[in-house]
Amino acid sequence: MIMKKEQFCQKVREQELSMYRYALGILRNSADAEDAVGETVLRAYDHLKQLKDPACFRSWIMSILVNVTKNILSGRKRLELPGDMNQYEQGTCGEKNELWYAVMELPHDFRHAVILYYYEGFRTREIAQMLEISEGTVKSRLNRARQKLKTALEGLY
Q: What interhelical angle do 57-74 and 30-46 show, nearest 10?
């Protein structure tokens, strides 16, 4: 059964913040993040017939977003950390802000895994499918990212 336009719009609204947070975390530029989310919505709507189970909408649209962000990154040589990221951070507590910025400093592959797992709540199996890597690789990246974050944050507390 194909999802109706109204259902699609509602599902997109429900995922809008998650999609933007992910795109901003990966692209580290608000204009590119907005473009990525917009492109993702357009692609998802164009390929809505491919969504077999509406219950899987969240992981389906995030998979599209992962590919869109990869395409944007492939056309770019250098990433800049924007000054307006604080409005999308995970809370107002200084600890959480420092953690968010530490995550933004992780290598690209680790950032993908950390944002999808810890901020967006996807399971390692779902992340593996989205990133088109093995589940073991996802677990390894999460482990290495935790080690890097621990080292980066040790001096702060």
A: 130
Global pTM value = 0.78
Q: Is residue 86 part of a domain?
A: no
Query: 41-64: per-residue pLDDT in tens?
Result: 999 999 998 988 889 999 999 999
Same domain, 49 and 112: no
At 127, the amino acid letter reads: I
* CATH number of residue 26's parent domain: 1.10.1740.10
Q: What is the 8-class DSSP label of residue 2?
A: P
Residues 64 and 95 placed together within one structural domain of the fold:
no
Which letter does DSSP use for residue 117 in this model? I
Report the C-alpha gap between 52 and 45 in whole angstroms. Answer: 13
Q: What is residue 75's predicted lDDT score, i.e. its pLDDT?
A: 76
31-55 burial: b if 16+ Cβ within 10 Å, else e: ebbebbbebbbeebeeebeebeeee
Reduced to 3 states (helix: H, G, I; strand: E, B; else coil), residue 149 is: helix
pLDDT the model gives residue 152: 86
Tell me which residue of 138, 137, 132, 141 sits closest to 67, measured CA to CA.
132
61 and 10 in a single domain? The answer is yes
